[in-house]
Design a protein that fits this description.
Length: 483
Amino acid sequence: MAENVILRFDDVTFEYEDRKPVLDEVSFSVRKDAKITLMGQNGAGKSTIFKLIKGELNPTKGKVHITDNATIGTAAQMIDKKDFDLTVEEYFGKAFVAVPGNIKSQISKVMDAVNLTIPTDRKIGDLSGGQQARILLAYALIQNPDILLLDEPTNNLDKEGIDHLITFLVMYNKTVIVISHDADFLNCFTEGVVYLDVFTKKIETYVGDYYSVVEEIQKRIDREIKKNAQLEKEIQDNKDKVNFFSNKGGKMRRLASKLREEISELEENKVDVRREDKTIREFSIPTQGIVGDIVTIKSVKVIKNHEPVAKDVNIILRQKDRLLISGPNGIGKSTLLRSLTNNTSEGAVILKDTVVGYYSQDFTTLDYDQTVIESLSSILANGIDMQEMRAVAAGFLIKGDLMGVKVSNLSEGQKGLLSFARLVLMRPGLLVMDEPTNHINFRHIPIIAKAINDYEGALIVISHMPEFVKEIKFNQELDLGKL
């Protein structure tokens, strides 16, 4: 059924300058209208695959075929900071070589598709994280692509937003390729998986829903481990016999030589068992130890019909208090945290001299022009030396090879881990976290949840991930949607 193939990789090898290959003679195809998950460990080359499909990168060897010049639209993970000052209409205009006369109606159509209603003269930077996530998808859709590439599309979306996206993708009658760590989301519409292995640099393809494929991969790993264990036993038995027979003369020595050949053959028959991502080390976030009313919130602004409305509340946070802020996308959750940490909120104050550790969903706390080591060094608390700083960073998989890299060149997942390393080094009295699981590999999340739950300072969290939230014992909740 080659005529139905819309995308094909033929023996594609790719390597960045001065680096080992990311992909090694990779071949796979995607048929028209398929819904495919791109799966693999951190650094396996998922984002590289997307860039090769879009033509932003060229293969070192091999060929990427796009059938009949099929068009490609991409919903990136995050909106570029340089676009924050654009209005919604100006931002969508960037999708065209020449802005069409009916752009307003086209914007209205794609905004309806992603279930978003906002004025088109709003600045992109003023939108909530969830609204920006929907804008990214709408930006891809307005190009009417034959192949839609989605990179972590559920980041920042509330449950309603995720459910709407699933419905849209199930009904969407074109090709979709998705990178996501959200297993439940993927299982709702995935028809197959393209799996990249970071160690072999090869690709495997599977047919079936996401959970079935994950189960199939695990069964294969179990078979590989069992086979290798059997071969190891045979190899050891033969080695014992070789040691015994090689000291004998004549025929026994020849038998020992034959056994050595069998050992070599058995070694060759061992398979490379798939090794999954390393997880970060368990960690703790030390607290400043400040006492008193660390945070006092008397009023908050809630967004109603695109306008802020002040609402009275009465919240006080001291040491070990944990506040969960909830509510739908666009209600004003992130705006509340930004105004609190920037000390611009009229109805909320932070106790003087409190060290505030702020995890921003869009990494605005990071200076993209700094190197990693500069970013870490810039926030060291008293008494922490460079050796301890490097040890903390290594626990978050940030090692020597990354220290000289600019923050702007890190992956989104690495920026997230860098942000956590900085929080550990800061020793904050108040921890403010806006969607701290975005971009983070799911294997790290239980470790992060435990560290946050064990933190003994005051804590404020926004998160749309229920399995993360349930691991933290909150004693207060502020639901902006109910005010």
